[in-house]
Amino acid sequence: MRMSESTATESRKHPGGRRKGSTNTRDAILHAAVKLFAESGYEGASLRAITNAAGVDVALVRHFFGDKQGLFEEAILKQGYDNLKLLMDADYQGSPARRVLEAYFAMWENEETSLTTRALFRTALESEENRNKLVEVIGNLMNNSLHKLASSKGITEWPEDDVTIRTQLIASQLLGIGVTRYVLKLKPIADMPSAQLINQLEPVLNTYVRRELDIPNPQD
């Protein structure tokens, strides 16, 4: 039986049953990239392994993302930023520090965001460039949150250097607890309930903003 003209054309376009260059293909590449970056880090996750897992040709990575770094930035940095922003915009109760902490722990522990978060931190440990990008992702969100909080308190002028210092102090706390609990998995912190850790960390983070913004310390 002869193959139909349309089937033959499709076979020539996509040898080996590879996916077409559609939105679904792009999503499949991103999904595979997140999983492999989380499991193997940036250096360990080759483009060949990612495209094999997605069932696509390597050429489609160039088509959609340019190169491996472009894929990493789209799959991990952008998605990580969007996930954390979405969680931080959620309606949490309590002090500003508690809202940040609850969003941060949710980012690690929610099924939809945990892989991206793990990939963010794993790759940050591999290179200074990726580490700086992770700090930038978290720092930008902290910076925006502090400015929004200041605006809600009627504070229209806040020295940028001071905001930057406070942002970096908050980011250092978040980065440290993330690596200790979820990457290195050091006990007993790795085994503690997140609510207990939030209670321990909340007064510390609140000290970085409470003076100018008149934020009460829960332990006062």
Question: What does this entry look like structurally?
Answer:
This protein has helices at 5-13, 23-44, 47-54, 59-65, 68-88, 96-109, 111-124, 128-152, 160-183, 194-206, 210-213. Helix 2 (23-44) packs antiparallel against helix 3 (47-54), helix 2 (23-44) crosses helix 7 (111-124) and helix 6 crosses helix 7 (111-124). Helices cover 73% and strands 0% of the residues. It has 11 helices and no strands. The chain is an all-alpha fold and 220 residues long. The longest helix has 25 residues, at 128-152. It is globular and about 55 Å long. The model is unreliable at 1-19 and 215-220 (pLDDT under 50).
| SS summary, helix count | 11
Low-pLDDT windows of residues: 1-19, 215-220
Q: Nearest-angstrom radius of gyration?
A: 22 Å
Give the biggest beta sheet: none
Percent range of helical residues = over 70%
The SSE order reads HHHHHHHHHHH
Total strands: 0
Ends distance: 84 Å
Structural class: mainly alpha
